[in-house]
Amino acid sequence: MLVTTSCSGIRENGVESRALPRNPTRSVRIGSVTIGGGNPIAVQSMTATHTQDIAATVGQIRDLVAAGADVIRVAVDSKKDAEALAEISKQVEANLAVDLQENYRMAELVAPYVSKIRYNPGHLYHHEREKPWQEKVRYLADIAGQSDCAMRVGVNCGSVDPDKKERYDAHDSISPMLESALEHCAFLDSLGFTRFAVSLKDSDPRNVIEVNKRFAAERPDVPLHLGVTEAGMPPDGIIKTRIAFEQLISRGIGDTIRVSLTVPNSRKSEEIAAGRKILDDIAAGRVRSVVDYGLQSLNIISCPSCSRVENEAFIDLAAAVKEMTAYAKDYAITIAVMGCRVNGPGETDDADLGLWCGPNHVNLKRGPEEVGAYTYDTILPKLKAELDALIAAKS
Predict the structure, then answer these.
(1) Predicted confidence (pLDDT) per residue in 95-138, tens digit
(2) What is the CATH number of domain 299-394?
(3) CA count, 13 A, side-chain hemisphere, 120
(4) Which whole-number Å values give the CA distances from 114 to 305, 314, 337, 361, in the listed order?
(5) What CATH topology corresponds to 3-284?
(6) Which of 56, 188, 355, 369 has the fewest Cβ atoms within 10 angstroms?
(7) Are 3-284 and 299-394 equal in CATH topology?
(8) Model's pTM, two decimal places?
């Protein structure tokens, strides 16, 4: 069932809106913002500064708030990050969310300072592997409840629960994501914890559209956070994201969004501006046709810059890859450029050629196969050689 409401559910900046359907999701409060339940679609971003650099992180949060961010996510990977977050929270007025990685136990250190906790079901198995995931989620729900926090179940194409992946064909990336999300929703419901949203993200807009449509059909009550992960640099990253958002929001699917862009820290607020522009255009009926990504064209994906990036040369490298590979624009080849070791190794598996960046070296992959690790100064010729070989094989 869909509930039709005015698109006043989209923050419009003065644009005349049209009536659009909205899934009847339940309301979930995140600090001063409430998503779902017909409330305005919230726009999110994530800090790209190192969390322990308190001054820089506070400055970026303030910039994002000034740009209109409703929720801002901060990565916490260590106790020192958690200590920094405690101080950061005192200096800003923002609805902060925390991004938990492998160590789910960090939740109790950060929950008092944020409005939302995001965990990835696929990362729960990394820490305390002998414990069942249900015990870990019960702990997270208890911490969130005690600290007045919402939660997000963040399912990502590159880090799906291994048990789920084993049950499906290797080419089926959607079903494992969907099963994982539905399973965690059912378990949280069984605990009586309903203050949560879900995200199902992929770097391919087609997969984002399909997996979110399937989830919304099964659980129209659960608010969805929409995003295309590793969308890349503007304008390509905005176009890919726009495609997914147009097809989902126009069907009533989506309660909060993020446009993930590879941009320098000083330009991070462009994510907010891009998100609001897309929402305004959908509200006004300015909707583009879906781009057919099956055409014979080069596809470069790159992750958004965030605090997990260990060398900011990654951003320059992503731009250089785009420039260097322009000659291959008419070939159906996907190149992925990832900025960290957390998601990079897994999320480059499905690309024809993948780069994931460490502090001093860039790891080059051919599909899931490791080719080698090269310095930032020497990676481009190696990438070009691999690209030329792929082109020759297709010719």
Answers:
(1) 999 988 778 999 999 999 999 999 999 999 888 888 999 999 99
(2) 3.30.413.10
(3) 24
(4) 21, 29, 31, 34
(5) TIM Barrel (3.20.20)
(6) 369
(7) no
(8) 0.76
